[in-house]
Amino acid sequence: MTYMDLSDQLCNACATGNLLEIITLLQNGADVNIKNVFNRTAIQVVKLGDSRVIETLLQAGANPNVPDPSCGLTVTHDAAREGFVDSVRVLLKYGADVNMADERGRELNDLIYFSTPVVCALNIL
């Protein structure tokens, strides 16, 4: 078994939604904004449907506006596109920028246009 640094461990825990492991890693000094071996932060690889994990990362200081290095999308773009309403609400609560565009110029509004649950959620915020 090879050793993984804390950022890689944190990213793995976030990708699987392992909240207990995430909390333990954060308590042991894992930095939520350090990139893993794939050049992604924990919030960029988070299990999108788990708003508790997302909120835990944001409370620990994760930046919700870090664009993916390959396409420019943020976690908010991804959550909105996939219809994860609770996750979008949490991201917006912690300062996600709805005006950030991806490398194709698409903003959050462009991605949620066809996602009725997200549109409804944003209307009640």
TrEMBL record:
Query: Could you state one GO biological process linked to this protein?
Result: regulation of G1/S transition of mitotic cell cycle
Query: What SMART domains does the entry give?
Result: ANK (SM00248)
Question: What's in the GO CC field?
Answer: cytoplasm; nucleus
Keywords in UniProt for this one?
ANK repeat, Repeat
Give the source's domain of life in one word: Eukaryota
Residue windows of the ANK repeats:
71-103
Molecular function (GO) terms for this protein are:
cyclin-dependent protein serine/threonine kinase inhibitor activity; protein kinase binding
The name under which this protein is listed is Cyclin-dependent kinase inhibitor 2C (p18, inhibits CDK4)
Native organism is Neolamprologus brichardi (Fairy cichlid)
